[in-house]
Structures are given as C-alpha cells and as structure tokens.
Amino acid sequence: RLEKAVGKIRQAGNVHQHLDLIAGLPEEDFHTFGESFRQVYQWKPQQLQLGFLKVLKGSRMQENREKYGLLYRKRPPYEVLYTRWLSYEEIIRLKGIEEMVEVYYNSGQFKNTLKALEKSYPSAFLMYDSMYRFYEKYGYERQQHRRSARYEILLRYIEECADICEEAEYYRELLTYDYYLRENAKSRPHFAGEYKVTKEFLRAFYENEEETHRYLRSYTDHDSSQMRRMTHLEYFAWMGKYILFDYKERDPLSQNARTCILQK
To answer: pTM score, two decimals?
Structure first.
C-alpha cells in the first residue's frame, strides 16, 4: 500500500517526498534494516532520512527496555545505543551510512553518478556502507568539506574501487555533469579535469544564439556575453555530445538546470 501511494505521488511530479527509516526497533537487525533500506530506496524519494530510535520516558519502549535489551542515552534525545538485535558497532556503522546518504543522496547533487554507481553493488545500502568505510579510512568524516570537495572525494573513492577503477574517466564526466546541473561555476573544479570546449567554438555558439536563439529562446533581450555568463557549455566524451546548461530555467523540485543537447 505504501509503495503504491508513494508511486502515485511521484508520478504527479510536483511534490517533494521525504521518507523515513528508524534503526533500533525491536527484532530488527543490521541485515533486515538493510532490506528495508533497499525497498524504500528504490522508490526514489527526494529525501531518505535514516533516524534512530528514541527511548522516551514513560513510553512502551522504556517499559520493555530489558526485554528488548535496549541501552540508550540518559540525556536528550535519548537515542538508542544498542539492542538485543543490533550491536553498538552496527549502530555506529548505520550512523556512517546515514551521513553518506545525507551528503550524496539527499543533497540531490549526485543523481546521475549514483545511478550508475549503484549498478556495481548488490544493493545501494552496501554501496553507502562501502563509501562510509572509505571516509573512515582517510578520516574524511571528521572534516568539514566545501561542496566541490565532495565530488573530488567520490572520484577518489571510485579510483580505489577495484571493480570500477578502470571506468574512472567515465565517472569523472558523470560527476562533472552532476556538478554543472547545479552550479553555474566559472572557476572550473579540479576533479573535472581539462575543459574540452575551445574558445572558438564557444564564441561561435553564443554569437549564433544571439542571432537565432535556437536553444535559449527566453534570452531574446540578452547579448552573447550575458548568455555565456548565465549558462554553461560542456563536452562529454562518454556520449560524444555538447550539453548546454541553462540556469535561468531550473527544475522547481530538483533545482537542476535545464539541459539541451546541441545538434549538428
């Protein structure tokens, strides 16, 4: 019933969906929580929140704390530390997965990269677990990161993965695509590598747009220089196409730029 309701709302295309999972419930272990994650993740809500059981005073959970083997913080928010089915180490592991989901999924900034990356794992849950272990290995989880650094770290993670490291250049372009969907950045991020669009091609394209407005129809009162500042043009070898990112017209739900594939 829930899957049907979520799907109906998603089809409307005008609602920002948030779905929650709570870790630490009775009789739920790490494996069954991962299965719940898999089911909810495949519905692709805009936000997937991983919460942890709160054992409030006077609640049934507190009354049955010994039965459920609950240990929880004695101060607010009274969050569970472990249960009969879920160890403290597994709680910490889920905390790490929660952080990865928050940074890479809930931000909405890595949609195309994650879609491709998920295919190399038995489940998205295990993918985020693997990413957390990479963060833990290099101490990234203890640092504050600027937005572009999250792309750089994800590319490093991909370059270290034995099963996909040979596809690192493909993923570099996917990350670049995701980056420019959101960012009208005039300073090129380091992870994106060399810019493959020549100055001559850029000049000719925007001068032609000033005359024809073939791709930028809502820019009739802008000259070529203004259109160039308000958009971004990128070449992607994996598709062999030039993509134009239009930041004036963004998707109201995702805030992604409108994209156009340049035709010959």
So the answer is: 0.92
| Alpha helices (runs of H) in 78-146, residue ranges in sequence order | 88-100, 111-117, 124-138
Which residues are within 8 A (CB) of 239 and not within 5 positions of it... i.e. 6 or more apart? none
> H-helix or E-strand containing 48?
strand 47-52
Q: Report the b/e string of 113-149 with b at 16+ CB within 10 A.
A: bbeebbeebeebbebbbbbbebbeeeebbeeeeeebe
Q: What angle do CA 142, 133, 139 make, to 5 degrees?
A: 25
Q: What is the pLDDT of residues 29-72, one digit of tens each?
A: 999 999 999 999 999 999 999 999 999 999 999 999 999 999 99
DSSP helix, strand, coil percent of the chain (3-state; round to 5): 50, 15, 35
Would you tell me how many other CB atoms lie within 10 Å of the CB of residue 98? Answer: 20
Token pair for 181: 């969907």
